[in-house]
Design goal:
There is one protein chain. By secondary structure, the protein is an alpha+beta fold. The protein folds into two domains: about 120 residues, PurM-like, N-terminal domain (60s Ribosomal Protein L30, Chain: A); about 180 residues, Alpha-Beta Complex (Phosphoribosyl-aminoimidazole Synthetase, Chain A, domain 2). Helix content is about 30%, strand content about 25%. It has ten helices and 13 strands. The chain has a seven-stranded mixed β-sheet with strand order 8-10-7-11-9-12-13, with helices on both faces. Strands 1-2-3-6-4-5 form a six-stranded mixed β-sheet, covered by helices on one side. Helix 2 runs parallel beside helix 3, helix 4 crosses helix 6 and helix 4 packs across helix 9. It is globular. The mean pLDDT is about 95.
Length: about 350
């Protein structure tokens, strides 16, 4: 019998869920929120006035600005738990025969600059030059704090709650495509278009700290989630799975920037399955929706209701042009087609 190997991307949700249940180490009552589908970071009660939040995430798709990516995606997950990112550690794996002092200094500088901008301290880590790599791999570990009491998690979501999306889908994916397929994008769409796509990393940007902080000021917030690998569609599955609820997603309400549409069309990618750091999903009580949307828009952050949770267990539906179809799940991010 031929052995089946997994494709590039996340492990299948069902397998990962089973692995988490089977191999969870020792029991510890101080872990308020631990390993689970749809949970962006762990919450630990150390008996202090604040909870400790812990997160780890690697940067694997990109070859440029890896330091900035590492800080941003890890701090996003702390923010999705309602917390403040404060301390960062990194494991930096560097390719043999390709690493010099300039490369190492560049990555360290990117890490430091991004941390200073967000008020984060680099407090440790590990570096090594190793075999089998064709690019630097940055594995980040972010620690943060959260005031005791309120925790945001998918289990809080109820039927009738609204799903809000900030900014747009595939912001990070747009920047990655431009960075990794620079010459092709420039040839097909022109230099100004390429520059605009490369700038997506900063404008509209892949950080969600500001919008998470705005949303968390309101009552009625159930859970936040950062749609990374697998894009918006997979993130919706990750939010819904722990709840046992269904979701209806309204395609026409999902913001897709024109640059993203054109790149996805050219490379034959579905934007709903493209890595989407920079967007934020918020499940909120229907009564809080308008106040939250108003607060976000008053700060210049685009946001819209894109979905509604219902009691139809496990039924995730995409409504497009008044036509209902099952929402596709992307265990393999669409962007991996380019690698």
């Amino acid at each position: 019998m031929k052995k089946r190997f997994f494709s590039t991307g996340k492990l299948p949700l069902e397998l990962l869920e089973n692995l988490i249940k089977e191999f969870h180490g020792a029991e510890d009552s101080s872990v308020i929120a631990g390993a689970s589908i749809g949970i962006d970071a762990a919450i630990i009660d150390l008996g202090a006035s604040d909870y400790l939040i812990a997160k780890t995430d690697p940067i694997t798709f990109v070859t440029g600005r890896v330091g900035q990516y590492a800080i941003t995606v890890n701090s996003n997950d702390i923010a999705c738990m309602g917390g403040r990112p404060r301390w960062f550690l990194t494991t930096l794996l560097l390719p043999e025969n390709r690493t010099d002092e300039n490369l190492v200094r560049e990555i360290f500088s990117e890490l430091s600059t991004a941390c200073k901008r967000l008020g984060i301290t680099i407090c440790g880590g590990h570096t090594e030059i190793t075999y089998g790599l064709d690019r630097p791999i940055v594995v980040g570990q972010m620690l943060g704090t959260l005031k005791r009491g309120r925790t945001l998690r998918p289990e809080n979501i109820r039927a009738g709650d609204v799903l809000i999306l900030t900014k747009a889908v595939a912001i990070e994916g747009t920047a990655i495509i431009a960075q990794e397929r620079t010459e092709e994008v420039k040839r097909v769409f022109g230099e100004q278009f390429l520059k605009r796509c490369l700038d997506f990393l900063d404008d509209p940007g892949i950080s969600v700290l500001k919008e998470a902080q705005i949303i968390c000021q309101h009552e009625g917030v159930r859970a936040l989630h950062d749609p990374t690998e697998g894009g918006l569609a997979t993130a919706v599955y990750e939010m819904a799975r722990p709840t046992g609820l269904g979701v209806e997603i309204y395609y026409e309400n999902i913001k897709i920037y024109e640059e993203t549409r054109r790149l996805c069309s050219h490379f034959n990618l579905d934007p709903l399955g493209v890595i989407s750091s920079g967007a934020l999903l918020a499940a909120v009580d229907a009564g809080s929706e308008e106040r939250i949307l108003k607060s976000l828009r008053s700060e210049g952050i685009e946001a819209s209701r894109i979905g509604l949770f219902n009691d139809r267990k496990g039924e995730l539906t995409l409504i497009k042009n008044s036509h209902k179809t099952p929402l596709e799940r992307f265990d393999r991010d669409e962007i991996t087609k380019l690698f």
